[in-house]
């Protein structure tokens, strides 16, 4: 048989690729409104998946939503009513700016302080460094 024909037959018998190869999954905010407060139930889980300190994410959300907030147990209490859609959108922007590497697009990063208060996003996969404003 012809080599190209055998090769085509072998490729057609392979299963389709199931995933994109990325092991990072964007966490989803689970929240509910109680009176005039919004409570994010899975805040600790989100910070663990993102490998960031809770204080960093709280500072970002407080600045973006312009509301005071406090951490209570494994959750986060926001002073105001917010829908899951808006909170997930803010979290997505945080991940794009402060978690995902600008070069290789992987989430294997950490934030380190360099000098004079300027912090850098350092990728543990490719070694790229990019300045971030925290």
UniProtKB/TrEMBL annotation:
The keyword Chloroplast does not apply. GO terms for molecular function: translation initiation factor activity. Residues 21-129 form the Translation initiation factor IF2/IF5 domain. It comes from the Archaea. Keywords: Initiation factor, Protein biosynthesis. Pfam families: eIF-5_eIF-2B (PF01873). eIF-2 functions in the early steps of protein synthesis by forming a ternary complex with GTP and initiator tRNA. Belongs to the eIF-2-beta/eIF-5 family. Heterotrimer composed of an alpha, a beta and a gamma chain. This is Translation initiation factor 2 subunit beta. It comes from Fermentimicrarchaeum limneticum.
């Amino acid at each position: 048989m012809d080599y190209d024909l055998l090769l085509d037959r072998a490729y057609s018998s392979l299963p389709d690729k199931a995933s994109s190869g990325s092991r990072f999954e964007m966490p989803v905010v689970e929240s509910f409104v109680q009176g005039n407060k919004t409570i994010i139930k899975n805040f600790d889980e989100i910070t663990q998946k993102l490998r960031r300190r809770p204080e960093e994410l709280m500072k970002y959300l407080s600045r973006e939503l312009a509301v005071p907030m406090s951490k209570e147990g494994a959750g986060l209490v926001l002073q105001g009513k917010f829908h899951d859609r808006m909170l997930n959108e803010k979290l997505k922007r945080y991940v794009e700016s402060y978690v995902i590497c600008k070069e290789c697009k992987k989430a294997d990063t950490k934030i380190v302080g360099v000098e004079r208060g300027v912090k850098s996003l350092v990728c543990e996969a490719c070694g790229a460094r990019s300045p971030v404003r925290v």
